[in-house]
Specification:
The protein is of the alpha+beta class and about 200 residues long. The protein is about 25% helix and about 30% strand. The chain starts with a strand and ends in an 8-residue tail after the last strand.
């Protein structure tokens, strides 16, 4: 089922998500709905707070990046086949050079900014079967994971840009909160203007 994506300004996006137990009610359904919602919005990642759930869960499917002709064949293949569910993740290490990439977010439509992140991460998490994993990722995969991990920590990519850039996008953020933006997917806004 496709769920509405929670728009910028909603308090749920600022909460630190809670760990979940293995017998968490309707977990399979929640994950299926998250994947449906992400694919419907043409996203490569989605965190539980973005569908209104303050839980430590996010999903990633980088296959759209695998179509990028500018990338080397090996990286294209890696991205095309990377699909994961992260439950109760813990970021163990972020290392390597920081590099910039123009990021966007389904909760902040029509806003894109260059964000600098470390190139390599080590993360511990449970998969959809509650099997524990510790893995090292780099490049675009690491970046998508870092972006989604921030969501479960109550952090948005707009927190990582300069004050000047924040000033420049202030009106766009206000428009999102008021429901004046119209992405081509279902969203829930904080205070949509009446009579629209």
């Amino acid at each position: 089922m496709i769920l509405p994506i929670i728009g910028y300004g909603d308090p749920v996006l600022r909460k630190v998500g809670e760990d979940i137990p293995q017998d968490f009610p309707n977990l399979k359904e929640i994950l299926a709905n998250m994947f449906d919602t992400m694919y419907n919005a043409y996203g490569v990642g989605l965190a539980a707070p973005q569908v209104g759930l303050s839980l430590r869960i996010f999903i990633v499917d980088t296959s759209p990046f695998g179509e990028d002709e500018d990338l080397e064949k090996e990286e294209q293949e890696l991205l095309k086949n990377f699909k994961r569910t992260f439950i109760n993740p813990k970021m163990l290490k972020e290392e390597g050079e920081e590099w910039g990439f123009n990021e966007g977010c389904l909760s902040i439509p029509e806003v894109r900014e260059d964000v600098y992140r470390n190139e390599k991460i080590t993360i511990e998490y449970l998969d959809e079967n509650f099997d524990k994993k510790t893995e090292v990722f780099d490049g675009l995969i690491a970046r998508v994971i870092q972006h989604e991990y921030d969501h479960i920590e109550g952090i948005l990519f707009t927190d990582k840009i300069s004050s000047l850039k924040k000033q420049l996008i202030k009106k766009k953020l206000q428009n999102i909160m008021e429901g004046k933006t119209r992405p081509d997917y279902k969203m829930k806004f904080v205070s949509p203007k009446k009579g629209r």
